[in-house]
């Protein structure tokens, strides 16, 4: 990720500075995150061509307020991510797809008004399937499936009581996840 993008991201977060009071994520809140990923953590290299961009959905419930002080809270929930890629070389190749299903927990801390910042961990299972194409014939199999984990650092900026813009950095289905969050 280039340094210019990170500087712009920090500037945007700082631009919304004001006195903090935890009103963005509390015990009992339910939030659905829907995101589009950039920079696949699963398929990279010169022979991989993106077939399906990383997409993800997560659902989180606030389970505990005031862990450290009035600005902190804890949330738990589920995660679903999907991506696909094509690997080709000299007339043959493979189509891959990955589905990640997992559970995640996040520690929330509100530094500035309307911005819910958090860090967390996800533990899940990556279901990988592949299908050959080209001169090798057609072979379908599942290889590489197994346990997976990721760390996230994220923020949700609330435009109103129930709709927020979402930005997450980490190592799930993608390095950067941008999307929308809906609070119920």
Structure description:
- With 184 residues, this protein is mainly β.
- It has a single domain, classed as Porin.
- The chain has one helix and nine strands.
- The protein has an eight-stranded antiparallel beta barrel.
- Strand 2 (48-65) and strand 3 (72-89) form a beta hairpin.
- Residues 12-21 have low confidence and may be disordered.
In short:
It contains 1 helix and 9 strands. It has one helix spanning 3-15, and strands at residues 30-40, 48-65, 72-89, 92-112, 115-134, 140-141, 146-158, 163-170, 174-183. Strand 7 (146-158) and strand 8 form a beta hairpin.
Number of separate domains: 1
Architecture per CATH nomenclature, i.e. the level-2 architecture: Beta Barrel
Largest beta-sheet details:
8 strands, antiparallel, barrel
Count of discrete alpha- or pi-helical segments spanning 4 or more residues: 1
Helix content: under 10%
CATH class: Mainly Beta
Task: Evaluate the radius of gyration.
Answer: 19 Å
C-alpha geometry:
elongated
> What is the string of SSEs from the N terminus onward?
HEEEEEEEEE
By secondary-structure content and strand pairing, the structural class works out as: mainly beta
N→C terminal distance? 33 Å
Unreliable runs: 12-21
CATH fold annotation? Porin
Major β-sheet strand ordering: 1-2-3-4-5-7-8-9
Strand content bin = over 45%
Protein name: Outer membrane protein beta-barrel domain-containing protein
Signal peptide: 1-20
Organism: Mariniphaga sediminis
Keywords: Signal
């Amino acid at each position: 990720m280039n340094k210019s993008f990170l500087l712009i991201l920090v500037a945007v977060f700082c631009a919304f500075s004001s006195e903090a009071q935890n009103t963005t994520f509390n015990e009992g809140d339910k939030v659905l995150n829907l995101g589009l990923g950039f920079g696949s953590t699963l398929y990279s290299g010169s022979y991989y061509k993106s077939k399906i961009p990383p997409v993800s959905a997560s659902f989180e419930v606030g389970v505990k307020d005031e862990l450290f002080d009035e600005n902190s809270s804890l949330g738990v929930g589920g995660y679903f991510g999907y991506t696909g890629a094509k690997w080709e070389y000299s007339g043959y190749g493979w189509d891959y797809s990955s589905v990640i299903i997992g559970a995640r927990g996040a520690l929330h801390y509100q530094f500035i008004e309307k911005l819910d910042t958090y860090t967390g961990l996800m533990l899940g299972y990556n279901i990988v399937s592949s299908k050959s194409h080209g001169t090798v014939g057609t072979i379908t199999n599942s290889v590489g499936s197994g346990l997976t984990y990721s760390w996230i650092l994220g923020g949700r900026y609330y435009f109103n009581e129930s709709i927020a813009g979402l930005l997450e950095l980490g190592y799930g289905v993608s390095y950067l996840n941008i999307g929308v969050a809906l609070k119920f």
